[in-house]
């Protein structure tokens, strides 16, 4: 997923860049931040999830500034339900989501390899020549202010032309909605999963490997597809003929240009184009659970961290090379354990605090690194130390591919 800094009425906030949403949504503010909003109107929002709509306020005439890309008349939806805040799932503070209004008037490049988002003047001819020479052009439609792409999906014997939402806010590869296409077949081997959280609550469904699908000039073989259950998508307003979504696990394998004004998309394979589609084989869902102060004694004089220098030891000798460093470090906790997984069989439970994984202190890890480890290699042994109700426990299990 893509996160960018944007100034909102003079305060810098972090937004998920999400082509799958129409409006700009704000759902979190740190205590330090004081943001003024104007012309508030109370509304209700619905979306993915199994619950009812959530309360929100609509605010108009806000000033947004993304590194010189300015909108003086921006509408923002303020969500009151803090359960929608997904900062703990991604491991960094996230304040909101921005979608259509970031893309609607400009040519926007997302370069996953260089970790850059670039907004171009739509009349800039030099970049047009580069696109014609090096990129594959695909038509898209803009419906309800969201981009849709047509691809071939193969789940059975014959490829099926399929209309897909291009969703940069979805970290999975491909979602398929069985309720919208009876001829799309659910593979025989599936697993039941917690898929994340939407506007209307938790999203559940199945994951399975399908035969193939195409994006740009690349056909992906044996990718993992997600099939949300009917309850989780009951509040979604589907455009005509849509059967699914393409997400970040596909898009991040390319450099992509979105050209909403001209109803097209340009793509070029990136460094991850041939990476396999792996899956979290542990059954654990891990979330960031805040920060805590950690002290560390060390001898490195080059650090710029706040330090305290010892002047004299108990034996009277000066210890001028010993320092104590105070740092804020992340805390991680198990958010969900998939029933029947190797982690569940080993005894791990929801709400266990992670102390270390394979000998590495959890303070020195990130959500991304933990997830990479949990889908790294079938048969790999994972040794995890956890704290449960003040008592330390150590468990071992092997990563097992069931897809």
Describe this structure in words.
- There is one protein chain.
- The chain has 403 residues and is mainly β.
- The protein folds into three domains: 106 residues, Cathepsin D, subunit A, domain 1 (Beta Barrel); 135 residues, Beta Barrel (Cathepsin D, subunit A, domain 1), CATH 2.40.70; 115 residues, PDZ domain (Pdz3 Domain, Roll).
- 9% of the residues lie in helices and 47% in strands.
- The protein is built from six helices and 28 strands.
- A hairpin with a 2-residue loop joins strand 16 and strand 17.
- 31% of the residues are buried.
- Pfam families: PDZ_6 (PF17820).
- One of its GO terms (biological process) is proteolysis.
Strand content: over 45%
Overall helicity: under 10%
- CA(first)-CA(last) distance: 24 Å
CATH architecture of the largest domain: Beta Barrel
Name the quaternary structure: single chain
Tally of extended strands? 28
InterPro entries: PDZ, PDZ_6, PDZ_sf, Peptidase_A2_cat, Peptidase_aspartic_dom_sf
Domain PDZ: 334-376
Pfam families: PDZ_6
Organism: Flavobacterium rivulicola
